Amino acid sequence: MSTTQTITILVLLLVAGLALFINQQDYVPGQSAVSDDGRDAFVEDMSLQIMDDRGQPLYRMTAGQMIHNAATGLLELDRPLVYITRPDGSEWHISAERGEAAADGTQVWLPGAVEIRRLADSRQGALQITASDVLVKPDEKLAETSRDALVSTDSSRVEAVVLKADFRNKRLELDSRVRGTINGPG
After folding, report:
1. What is the pLDDT of residues 9-45, one digit of tens each?
2. What sign for the dihedral angle of Cα 106, 175, 81, 111?
3. Is the separation of the CB atoms in 129 and 153 below 8 Å?
4. How far apart are alpha carbons 103 and 81 in whole angstroms?
């Protein structure tokens, strides 16, 4: 297990423990800490920052609510937002209405409508990807879907089926039924 994964697990356990402590109720004999549906921790306005071995930020994730489900080992997320920052400082935001994350933070599943945005900066303009059913691997700086995706900027619009966004290497792979328009000089 890598140091990053170990740190992620420790942070998540700390958040879950803190949530249990804050929401602590009077002890009732015979009552287990895990509810009938497996949910054992709840946090509102969750914010989690994951660091690499050198203490540099890998990614950050927030959610309106986070519920840990001991039965599945997953974190259930309401309005998750994953922030991925590249070494050059450019930032990507990945958001959805709901999602699930592995307890170690290595994978985040975002079902339904997902929006991926690169913020504009002095080097490049804004870019938006609209997709659905996206798997995010934040520590690898990857997002992918086998569904329809729309990539748009101020001067282009490209549709495709199957998208892989490699934020680390500044690469978008569009695999099937790619079509679009690019408006520019020339």
Report:
1. 766 655 555 555 555 444 333 333 444 566 677 789 9
2. negative
3. no
4. 16
In whole angstroms, what is the distance from residue 171 CA to residue 184 CA?
21
Side chain identity at residue 136, one-letter code = V
With 0-12 / 13-18 / 19 or more C-beta atoms within 10 angstroms meaning exposed / middle / buried, residue 163 is buried
Contacts (Cβ under 8 Å, ≥6 apart) of 61: 46, 47, 48, 50, 80, 81, 82, 83, 101, 105, 108, 138
- pTM for this entry: 0.74
Cβ(51)–Cβ(61) below 8 Å: no
User: Using an 8 Å Cβ cutoff, are 44 and 27 in contact?
Assistant: no
CB 64 within 8 A of CB 78: yes
Nearest by Cα to 21 from 46, 41, 7: 41
Pair of tokens at residue 76: 């259930």
181: part of which helix (H) or strand (E)?
strand 171-182
SS (H, E, C) 153-172: CCCEEEEEEEEEEECCCCEE
- Token match 């309005």: residue? 79
